[in-house]
């Protein structure tokens, strides 16, 4: 099933839609926590702090949107309150592992240099995806005049991508080559995730 059709099916079912928002919130929160975990206690920059704070805010904002559908629904990130919970929880963690292996193999990085480089590449790949995913979701929301909207997230994610590119340019003259490889790794995981979303949506309908 195509991604926009999956979203269309999700939006028409309030319970499914609430779980979808909760799943997005989980993934934003996971990203924020990973950014914070990559921080060096002495050299952490304004941009990194800003990015972590905004990802945490996205997680909260998405969680808050659930109240427009069903007050009290999806109180936690327990599997029963998510869509495709295994894949959704595995996605970012696996991308982080894959990128770290790549950086060790290609650039011989370790320690804080590895953590920072992984933060750059993983976050870049996720921001590329976010710049595609949220506008598609908003388009489907607009079609049904939903009370839910993610326009503020779209604007901030666009800014994040620009910030990541600037940081990557400072990181390496070959940043585009490494970033493209990270995007390929993310694309494989995204396809797996979409496959599980599709299966769950079809089974529930």
How would you characterize the overall build of this protein?
The chain is mainly alpha-helical and 205 residues long. It contains 7 helices and no strands. The relative contact order is 0.15. The model has no long low-confidence stretch (mean pLDDT 93).
SSE diagram, text form:
Layout lengths: L2 H9 L2 H25 L7 H20 L19 H23 L3 H33 L7 H21 L3 H30 L1
As a percent range, the share of strand residues is: under 5%
Q: Mind telling me the CATH class?
A: Mainly Alpha
Task: Provide the helix percentage.
Answer: over 70%
> What is the terminal separation in angstroms?
13 Å
Structural class: mainly alpha
Contiguous helical run count: 7
Give the total of domains. Answer: 1
Q: Residue ranges: pLDDT <50 for 5 or more in a row?
A: none
Key traits:
single chain; 205 residues; mainly alpha; Ferritin; 7 helices; 79% helix; 0% strand; globular
Provide a short characterization of the protein structure.
This protein is mostly helical and 205 residues long. The protein has helices spanning 3-11, 14-38, 46-65, 85-107, 111-143, 151-171, 175-204.
